Amino acid sequence: MSYSTTQMINTSSPLNEVDEECKAEYIDLYKFYAAVMIVIFILALPLNASVLHLFIFKLRFWKSNTNNIFLFNLVLADILLLFCLPIKAYNYIKGERRSTNDTVCKGMLFMLFLNRGASIAFLAVTSIDRYFNVVHPGRKNLLRALKKSPQISIVIWLLLLPLTIPTMLKNFDCCNSYDANSTSREELVDSMREAVFFSQIVIPFFILVYCTVHIVNRLRKKTVGDRTKLRRAVFLVTSVMVVFSLCFLPCTIARVVLLISRVQLWSKSSQQKAAAAFDGLMVLSYLDCLLDPLVYCFCSTKFKGLYLSTYFPFLLKGDHVPVESSTGNTQPRRNNVI
């Protein structure tokens, strides 16, 4: 009996060790996180799916010379990221910060990093494209030439693939970076993984700030054109900056605090609080999947008219709303939005 008990304890110790590393200490709080992710999933999935349907079957984005190609990939990345949320919510409800199944855990990390990185990358590329269109409208640039071909989007996806490798080498979700017993090789892996995480947010953030400031300044100096359209354009680019800052900067700061708590060997209670705050702000970052279509797509009058006429024609109440044809042209008038 004693031998069996001892054998059972020894057999289960590796699993218990993993559970202890990634155990959610504040169960009620993590159940709230799970509820938030489920709400985001329920709201964002049909919205992104319907927008994706319009891009494919109505706008035929691959034939468009506008930034529809980039917007399509942005929505595609968001909708792929959404499929990770139910699994994440299930783990939180069980009181686990990540799956105890190694294959599921690494698969989730791959999907989260790839699609989240793609979402941020296409968001940044769209902002750069808008920057050249507004600030340097007559200047030839490489992006303007490349965006006419869908191949540039494939290249962006392929470039993001190697960036997911560091996240697969060691568990990321529980932030085991820079452990006191880490070897030099493990610390190198930790540094690579953290560099990927921060570069995916910090570099696009500075690009976004630069583009937004110059676009807003250029639009405010314009004296020719519809003032309403100019105000709408300023609101759009400012909204993008606000959404990015709201969704991604808080979790980045929380990650820094969590790493500091581990390196400086804070008390266990303090590390648990830092981990819970980081996980909660990561949940906030998933809100980007819901806000992206609203900010990028529905700020366009012609896209909003197309969406309403396709899915909610009864809301038009007989008003004449410009609807975009499958070729990307607006009938009967053209109503471009920056």
CATH architectural category: Up-down Bundle
Kindly report how far apart the N and C termini lie: 75 Å
Radius of gyration: 23 Å
Structural class: mainly alpha
Major sheet characteristics = 2 strands, antiparallel
Number of domains: 1
| The level-1 CATH class | Mainly Alpha
Q: What is the number of helices? A: 13
Mean pLDDT: 79
Proportion of beta-strand residues: under 5%
CATH superfamily heading: Rhodopsin 7-helix transmembrane proteins
Number of strand elements = 2
- Summarize the helix and strand pattern as letters: HHHHHHHHHHHHHEE
User: Stretches where pLDDT falls below 50 for ≥5 residues?
Assistant: 1-18, 321-338
Oligomer: single chain
Placed side by side, the strands forming the largest sheet appear as 1-2
- The CATH topology is given as Rhopdopsin 7-helix transmembrane proteins
Protein name: G-protein coupled receptors family 1 profile domain-containing protein
Main location: membrane
Pfam families: 7tm_1
Membrane topology: Multi-pass membrane protein
